[in-house]
Amino acid sequence: AARAAHRPRRPLVRARGRPRLAAGRRLAGGRGPAAPPPPPGCALDRLNAAQDGAVEAALLACCGSRRWARRLATHRPYPDLPALLAAADEASYDLTPRDLTEALADESVAQHAPSGSRGPGTLAAHTALRAAHAAYESKFGHVFVVCLDGVPHEEVLGHVLAAIRARLDNDAETEREVAAEELRRIARGRLAHLAATRPHGT
To answer: Is the pTM of this model over 0.90?
Structure first.
């Protein structure tokens, strides 16, 4: 089944060409006019107001790195979703190798890619997918993770199989950078969903 960039050295998973803010500096919420403050009672408003422990638990469901979750919780409040996502991206770029290993071990992230026995496709395709997963984990020592946001359901199996096969050609360091970027994208999508979700009955 599928499972789900340091100082003194440079962070392993920092994306090339990405600007980095100084430590402790607040993050801008994207370009253009600032979005209006969230209405009272919306999910982002509740996220800003919640106790640290509850927020960290919710954030860990988006990315399995505890340092990532603590960093986002500490930098509250966020005026709008773009500011929250910008903070999440910056925290993802600063993941250390240890943080990345922790995040890759998170079972909820492991479920983001389909297993070899689910989704549309022929038996031969599912068998090939299971074999590709096994080869990937044997080579890199961690689960294969890929962001499937925006991939049509009927194209998931082919998308994942093609991605595994292409990434099997990577060396270990390159592949951890790729995996870190996929984790960033997954976390960003989950965080956007978390900040947009309203409580039942509203």
So the answer is: no
Tell me how long the chain is.
202
What the block records as the tokens of 47 is 């996220």
| Number of Cβ atoms within 10 Å of the Cβ of 39 | 8
Q: What is the dihedral sign for C-alpha 59, 28, 198, 74?
A: positive
Total domain count, the chain: 2
Choose among 107, 117, 104, 97: nearest CA to 160.
117
Residues 72 and 172 in one domain: no
* pLDDT tens-digit series, residues 143-152: 899 999 899 9
Examine residue 201 and state whether it is found in any structural domain, yes or no. Answer: no
Angle at 181 between CA 177 and CA 186, to 5 degrees: 145
* pLDDT band, residue 20 (cuts 50/70/90): very low
Q: Is there a single domain that holds both residue 110 and residue 180?
A: yes
Q: What is the CATH number of the domain that holds 178?
A: 1.10.3330.10
Identify whether the C-beta of residue 1 lies closer than 8 Å to the C-beta of residue 143.
no
Give the Cα separation of 110 and 169 in Å (integer). Answer: 21
Residues 59 and 126 grouped into a single domain = no
Closest C-alpha to 146, from 102, 192, 181: 181
Taking residues 183-189, report their average pLDDT: 94
Helix or strand or coil: residue 152? coil
| pLDDT tens, residue by residue, 7-19 | 333 344 444 344 3
